[in-house]
Amino acid sequence: METLKRWKKSSPEMDRIQFLKTVPFFNELSNWQLKKVGEIVFERSYEPGEMIFEQGQPGAAIFLIMEGQVSVEMFREANTNLAVLDRG
Fold first, then answer.
1. Is residue 57 within 8 Å of residue 34, measured between CB atoms?
2. Average pLDDT score over residue span 53-65
3. Strand pairing partners for 79?
4. Lower CB density within 10 Å: C or N end of the chain?
């Protein structure tokens, strides 16, 4: 019965699974698979203006935006805004 009570309430694990369901890359996974993904993801907050990664760096992670927006910019002679991404 304790297990049922735990799942009826909102929990960080359930919130994470619900969020992953909204991301197209993960939306076809079962709840069990989403739970496994949720167990290995790492959450990090970034400050406004903080750089997340730079062009030319090897791809070492997938980034999902849970809250806020991220500006994708290219730096050459001038700063060029390529896109603004938000949740998901």
1. no
2. 85
3. 75
4. N
